[in-house]
Amino acid sequence: MSNYPLRLPDHVMVDVKVMAARSGTSLNQFIASLVAERIGEMKALAAIEARVARADPVAALAILDHVPDRAPMAGDAIEG
User: CA-to-CA distance for 71 and 25, rounded, in angstroms?
Assistant: First the structure.
């Protein structure tokens, strides 16, 4: 486990203390979980962006061209 001196603006620290207390966790555990959650979000976004970069819209549309033009099955229709 690593230590890092974290400086937060006073108004942010007040909010963090309140939220940690509401969640029933220590200040350290609350901040660590927020950081871990944000890192997970950023990694997921990077993975999605990488997939988008590899996408081939022309090939995708070519595949969709093979889908038969017929009414949806019962229960699959979009209302409106």
Answer: 54
